[in-house]
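Example for tutorial group B:
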């Protein structure tokens, strides 16, 4: 039986190639896009993710996570920052939203696994799933995925973890998938300056 994988399809280059790699490996792939704000840019990214899903020939849906993202990520970040601390909202977002809420949405849609375009690896070690650095240390994103629990790790696939960022760009271009930008830290700030 073919394993069903939901890919967190952002509309960016990394998740696009991750979806393509999963298809080439024989997975049944379904794309989900997390809508985190109602901004014009967010709507554009959702539309771009939908276009990519159609190009890849996969099912696709948008999950409205604006309220949960605002309450669990944005509001606590603003509170901590206003208190003179420097929080990392990406750690909270990855734990609670991408690998918490989105994972639940994927499983509810009958997925066996959730995949993302993150540069990190998940390996088995003494019967447990362990998060490891990406093969490309310059692109590694494991440092803000450390808070993901072991049960969630067992359900995750990160196809880019063993590939260099340069190779990702090359593969995406060769497959006609070179579109969208790479993800950024503190995505909800856009071009705003914190000062």
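The residue assignment follows.
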């Amino acid at each position: 039986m073919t394993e069903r994988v939901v890919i967190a399809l952002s509309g960016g280059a990394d998740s696009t190639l991750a979806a393509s790699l999963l298809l080439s490996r024989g997975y049944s792939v379904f794309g989900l896009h997390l809508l985190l704000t109602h901004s014009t840019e967010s709507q554009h990214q959702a539309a771009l993710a939908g276009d990519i899903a159609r190009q890849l020939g996969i099912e696709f849906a948008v999950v409205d996570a604006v309220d949960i993202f605002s309450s669990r990520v944005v509001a606590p970040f603003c509170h901590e920052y206003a208190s003179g601390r420097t929080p990392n909202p990406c750690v909270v977002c990855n734990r609670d939203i991408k690998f918490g809420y989105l994972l639940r949405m994927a499983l509810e849609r009958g997925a066996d696994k959730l995949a993302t375009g993150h540069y990190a690896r998940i390996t088995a070690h003494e019967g447990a799933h362990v998060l490891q650095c990406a093969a490309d240390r310059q692109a590694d994103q494991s440092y803000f995925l450390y808070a993901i629990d072991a049960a969630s790790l067992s359900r995750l696939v990160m196809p880019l973890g063993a590939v260099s960022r340069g190779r990702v760009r090359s593969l995406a271009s060769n497959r006609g998938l070179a579109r969208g930008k790479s993800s950024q830290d503190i995505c909800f700030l856009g071009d705003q300056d914190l000062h």
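The first strand starts at residue 4 and ends at 8. Compare this with the pattern of hydrophobic and polar residues in the output above.
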